[in-house]
Design goal:
By secondary structure, the chain is α+β, with helices and mostly antiparallel strands. The protein has 2 domains: 197 residues, Orthogonal Bundle (Lysozyme); 137 residues, endopeptidase fold (from Nostoc punctiforme) (Alpha-Beta Complex), CATH 3.90.1720. The protein is built from 11 helices and 11 strands. A 6-stranded antiparallel β-sheet has the order 6-11-7-8-9-10. Strands 1-2-3 form a 3-stranded mixed β-sheet, with no helix packed on it. A two-stranded antiparallel ribbon has the order 4-5.
Length: 350
Amino acid sequence: MGSAGKIVLGAAAVVVLAPLTLIFASGGGDTVPMDNLGGELDAKRVPPEYLPWVNKAGHMCSLITPAVIAAQIETESNWRPNVSSYDRAGNIIASGISQFIPETWAAYGVDVASRNGAATPDGVADVFTPGDAITTQGIYDCAIAKDIEALLKSGKVSGDPLSLTLAAYNAGSYAVEKAGKVPNIPETQGYVASILALIPQYTAATTNQSSPFGQRVVAQARRWLGTPYSWGGGTTDGPDYGVAQGASIKGFDCSSLVQYAVYQATGGKLMLPRTSEEQATAGTEVQRDQIRVGDVIAFQLHGGGDYDHIGIYIGNGRMIHAPRTGDVVKEADLSDSYYSSKPQTIRRYG
């Protein structure tokens, strides 16, 4: 893309008011496939001086993980903190390790670090200070993710939340809303595809055993992080409107998310029962010390022998689930006393 410290965009480049706009590749279609949204960060892949900031930025909201932050940075600047991009007239378009345009930096830039690398503010929100830029990247990512969540909930857009968020970071939320999906702009399609392809490379292996099937189940569920909970909603094809309190909400409930993930992971070959009570008796029972990625955990949250909630184990003592009305598909820590104190059973479907 150019010499170190300077990137010159060609005449065909589209300049938009969003910070991450520089590394383009051809692409097409309406959606971008996703196999891994990123779990624990593989610290060996990240330059050590940036590791604390990447971890900080990747723990501000559930959708934006450290692996997502790292993949964005590689796509934007290849970890070069002093790079700037220019148009043909020589005007600066974007700057820094996370490639912010001036308008976005003015609105979101924060001062959390000093130019010499110290983790203390120095009185200036500096786009060329990696700590400032990477922290701001996390803040801005999460702000956009919140906007996308609202658009998904309203039905104005459809698709997986991370792809939509990355597209909005590149082309602007207005472009995503206008298209109702990831815009069919080659630069934006390529940008999203580039980051999604890098995320698995920045993701560490989990501390629990996994199988290709289990990994596929988790990947399918993670596609919908941030999707609204809809009681009775969701099908094997994706989010859908529910019944009763879920009638006006397009999303998943706990058991439809599990049913969807397993159905998609098997290419439609395995259709689980629809309810958590039935799913808790399907498959093979697994002891807690034998749990592995992709197993499901059913809970008796309200007693009475009724398994009224279910989630998917993602490794490292965490699960992904659709919790309740008013909430969204998210990750949760199984050590949380609300879950750990409840009767539960673990099932394996493949």
